[in-house]
Amino acid sequence: MFDRFKKAFAQRGAPPSLPAAANEVSQWAGVHGFSYTALGAGNGFAVAGSAAGKPFKLERGASTRDYIHGDELRARAEMALNDEVSVLVINRPLKDALEKRAYEMYTDTLQTTADPSLPEEMRWLAMYPEAGWDGLAPEFWKRYAVLSEKRDQAMAWVDPHLANLLMTWPEPAPNQQVPFILTLLRGRAYLRMQYTPADMPTLGHATQIFTYACESAASGLGADILV
Q1: Mean pLDDT (whole number) for 38-66
Q2: What is the C-alpha to C-alpha distance for residues 44 and 212, in angstroms, rounded to an integer?
Q3: Radius of gyration of the chain (CA)
Q4: Which of 71, 97, 140, 147 is least crowded, fewest Cβ atoms below 10 Å from its Cβ?
Q5: Could you give phi then psi for residue 37, rounded to 5 degrees?
Q6: What is the pLDDT of residue 2?
């Protein structure tokens, strides 16, 4: 698919954004003190490091969600947070699409059983109410939704700096339609997004968002961290 896109752009005289080559990613990882591992024969890789004193891993690989097309970036960190800490940041177009899908399933009289292939994000939308508060720019709330049972946890985590990082992607930036989820759940921090554009600026900024999100969780939710 991407080869066809590249050919189409080339024919129109508009060069596509350059993909993140393996050597570029390896060099970038080394500069930042991360370990790098190639995954498979394609463009997959894993980067491991630490954030807020906790180990994390970020991977590029084939999508594990049907709402993500092409490769995805996914990250996970063991934050040892209290299991009661549950906060979800999701871009609004993805939230709207998942909610529409859930509604259509609910109203479909032929749908009598739960589909085990459905992403767990659909369950999160049903479990957690949307939290909103003053202090963040209106443009942030137009692009993202923050869900949590406890708004004080959401406010402690999504501070102005994290919100600013989420809004200031480097060019060529992911547009507002690109699926993006950042989560604190089950004692861990997670990131999942469609890797578009698949270039070094996007990779670097996604990593910056995730590592700062870990730091913000450790400092802002310190009272909820298990010793």
Answers
A1: 92
A2: 24
A3: 18
A4: 97
A5: -135, 125
A6: 34
Could you read off the pLDDT of 67-118 as tens digits, one per residue?
999 999 999 999 989 888 999 999 999 999 999 887 777 676 555 445 555 6
Q: Please give the helix or strand (H or E) that residue 61 lies within, else none.
A: strand 54-62
Q: What does the pLDDT read at residue 110?
A: 54
DSSP state of 223: G
The residue range of the domain holding 215 is: 2-224
Total domains present in the chain: 1
Give the global pTM. 0.84
Dihedral angle of Cα 38, 210, 76, 194, to the nearest 10 degrees: -60
The CA distance from 216 to 219, in Å, is 5
For residues 38 and 16, give the distance between their C-alpha atoms in angstroms, rounded to a whole number.
24
Number of other residues whose CB lies within 10 A of the CB of residue 25: 20
What lies within 8 Å, CB to CB, of 71 at 6+ separation is 43, 44, 60, 61, 62, 63, 194, 195, 198
CB atoms within 10 A of CB 173: 15
CA distance 152 to 131: 9
* Residue 89 and residue 182 in contact, taking contact as beta carbons nearer than 8 Å: yes
